[in-house]
Amino acid sequence: MTSDLRWTLAGDKPTGLFETCRQVVGKGRYRGLTFLEVESKTIINRVAKTRYFPFEYTINCYRGCSHACVYCFARPSHDYLGLGIGEDFDRKIVVKVNAVEMTRAQTAPRHWAGHSIAMGTNTDPYQPAEGKYRLTRGVVEVLAERANPFSLLTKSPLVLRDRHLLAEAARRAEVTVSFSVGTLDTDVWKRSEPGTPHPRQRLEAVRKLKGLGIPSGVLVAPLLPGISDAPRQVAEVMRACRDAGADFAAPIRLHLRPGVKEHYMEWLAEEFPDLVGTYHQLYGNRSYLPRPSPSGRRKSNPARQSPKPRTPASPKNGQGRLL
Where are the domains of the chain? Predict the structure, then answer.
């Protein structure tokens, strides 16, 4: 472990972001992963609400994610810890082993007013590491016990493991489970998010959660310009959301903030080299694509002008549609 990491090694005087760090090499189904077990000094984070992040309090039991989504906006959080935002983010998973205890302490009635808590705002709470550590389940148990509202965002049907617990929590407080499904195109899925379960498994999870009375919907995100944003592709996902009984489906276009942009562009140059020039036009000096004009007419999308057949214009960045 290098000296510039923002945590304290086990046995040293605690001075870093976390109290201690212990490396655990993954075996069996976790082979190829390294778990960095830390004790966090706090678990509930307060963030500024914006139109992009409509929540105020978050819990993230993990940092890094073996889903390995190339576009993941959370990648720079590994740089903050002194780790790489590429393979390190995919393979070195920070595990806050005291997350459940900290949640219980910080949501004690004498300290906490019962604010809604969002999970999955940084990395996936039901990524493979959750199968080993069960921290998300522990946090949900605490929140359910205290009738505290919360939301979950995931790409994994592992959430079904906790379906009965979630159903009980939903009877006590406002609970929402959202799935990210940006495409049903198998080729795009395999290339852009190679560590995730198949998108149709996620939609089946929506159907099963709805069958238990758990509010559940889909973020149709991210829509990758020229890759997964063709009208027929988006329509296919929207139809599948409706067929699964989703409460809502919200198309969201790709955004590329500094750090993630460079990582994504390297991937794009390897996988879709003909689109590199159009992405420089779309994202060269911005992180988010322009919002549609008030008249409802879109500005010309350079991706549509590419000679490749899979490069149509991006659809509007919808605000969510009740289905």
Answer: 181-323
